[in-house]
Write a structure and sequence with these properties.
The chain is mainly α and 469 residues long. Helices cover 78% and strands 0% of the residues. It has helices at residues 3-24, 30-35, 42-53, 55-68, 74-98, 104-111, 113-146, 150-199, 203-212, 232-246, 251-258, 263-294, 305-313, 318-349, 356-373, 384-406, 414-434, 441-468.
């Protein structure tokens, strides 16, 4: 990088570090560290949600989807809005009524500590794999931009993020993510502006060229809805269920709204984030399409399209801002993962019995594990964003089934609940082998979870009279 670009990046990293250290002064307890003392503004929480869920996968993979194809990925984002409305209606009132620090405490209140730890364990495994993948995506971009080896890139991102997350807690994470969201969204908009200026062609004319090439298609009417994950019915319905799970039963997302002062504020943050995600995806899909025009469709390695454009096409200064945007996206993902994994560990596995110092040590341990796992994803050939969503689909249905059962007044044994949870995961492996699109995994696993739990519970109840005799 040129000296000006490097200066911009170093100033950005220093500002993040100092902000985290400054916020760390106000953390006096684990409640402050993990929930910000329930004083997080809903607007900051909303932007933090958007940054946490999209971040590097958006920056890396979404422009690539448009570069190689069209805008049909936007169908998922349409479903996301519906899913968040369902979260705000069904699940958020439950969490605020119980005043929990971790959403899996609801499972513990309803079904006992054992099931709470099981639910938390499922979250920890899923979140570790998903965010290690996201950290790999971040490292892949930094590798292209800086020329550093992939493992070095991953370690650098991990270390920089760890400092402000370790000391600042959720308050530093939420406020910095809000800023980072704005920065990497600006990166997408600046790229669009640069292409318009360089090509000297008005935006409407460029859009007509893209439309003629079939690059702006949003709705995919493909009738193979069971095998094509981006056929409209499966994508929209799958997106709604994915959002219901990711923002309703995944502690990393719900943690941001639990830090809000009350339920109405949490609902505004949750639903508002859905509309901002739709807008954000549109910006980065447009950037990918316009880069395709600018590069005349030249072949570029998958998920490196935007990075190659930044490195080889942008001028000094603007390149530095875009690299800062890259790091913003990377750090927002990693910081969220570290804090939420530590929060669930402390509140679910340790029953909240941990000091602030211990909580920070647990955060450090999770940060090291994520950095260690991230390079293992380098051999995958799928688009990173699609792989990330598929990983989540393996376990989200089982967790959602547990929370739905918790709304029932019926008693359930640990055996029946455990059987339902395992069955819901096994069915996903079977459906993947059969070639079913991942957008249907959650729906199928929820139904299997409920059916298996109710079936085993009926069998166990039927044996009780015999056992009493």
């Amino acid at each position: 990088m040129q000296p000006l670009d490097l200066t911009i990046v170093l100033l950005f990293l220093a500002a993040n570090t100092l902000f985290g250290l400054w916020h760390g002064r106000s953390n006096k307890s684990t409640g402050d560290y993990f929930l910000g003392g329930h004083k997080l503004p809903w607007i900051a929480s909303m932007f933090s949600i958007v940054a946490s869920e999209t971040s590097m996968l958006t920056f890396v993979s979404v422009p690539g989807l448009a570069y190689r194809g069209d805008w049909t990925f936007l169908q998922l984002a349409m479903g996301y809005i519906v899913g968040r409305i369902l979260v705000s209606t069904i699940l958020l009132p439950l969490y605020f009524a119980h005043g929990v620090n971790s959403i899996y405490q609801v499972i513990g209140i309803r079904f006992g500590q054992r099931m709470q730890k099981v639910a938390s364990g499922v979250f920890l495994v899923t979140r570790t794999l998903g965010d290690a993948l996201r950290l790999f995506a971040a490292g892949a971009i930094v590798e292209v931009v800086t020329g550093w080896p992939l493992p070095v890139s991953i370690v650098v991102i991990g270390l920089v993020t760890l400092v402000y997350t370790l000391f600042g807690g959720i308050k530093a994470v939420v406020w910095l993510e809000s800023f980072q969201f704005g920065l990497y969204l600006a990166g997408g908009l600046l790229s669009i502006g640069f292409i318009l200026h360089t090509m000297g062609i008005p935006l409407p004319e460029l859009l007509l060229k893209l439309e003629a090439a079939g690059k702006l298609r949003v709705i995919n009417p493909d009738s193979h809805i069971l095998t094509n994950p981006l056929a409209f019915v499966g994508a929209f319905f799958g997106g709604a269920l994915l959002s219901l799970c990711s923002h309703g039963v995944d502690h990393m997302m719900v943690q941001r709204v639990l830090g809000c002062a009350n339920l109405p504020a949490a609902r505004r943050a949750m639903v508002g984030s859905g509309f901002f995600v739709l807008f954000q995806f549109s910006v980065f899909l447009l950037a990918g399409s316009m880069i395709w025009l600018f590069m005349q469709g030249a072949p570029i390695p998958k998920d490196r399209e935007f990075a190659n454009f930044i490195v080889h096409q942008l001028p000094t200064g603007l390149k530095g801002l875009l690299v800062a945007g890259v790091l913003s996206a990377a750090m927002s993902t990693h910081s969220s993962a570290i804090n939420s994994l530590a929060s669930s560990t402390v509140n679910d596995l340790m029953a909240g019995k941990a000091t602030l110092g211990t909580s920070r040590l647990i955060s450090l341990a999770w940060a090291v594990l994520l950095v260690a796992i991230a390079p293992l994803f380098d051999s995958r050939n799928e688009a990173i964003v699609m792989l990330g969503l598929e990983i989540a689909s393996f376990t989200y249905g089982g967790l959602l089934g547990l929370f739905l059962l918790s709304r029932s007044g019926r008693p359930f044994s640990t055996a029946s609940l455990g059987t339902g949870l395992v069955a819901s995961m096994l069915i996903v492996f079977l459906l993947k082998l059969l070639g079913l699109a991942w957008t249907w995994y959650i729906a199928a696993s929820v139904l299997v979870n409920l059916a298996a739990t109710l079936g085993v519970e009926a069998l166990l109840s039927g044996r009780q009279p015999f056992n009493r005799r």
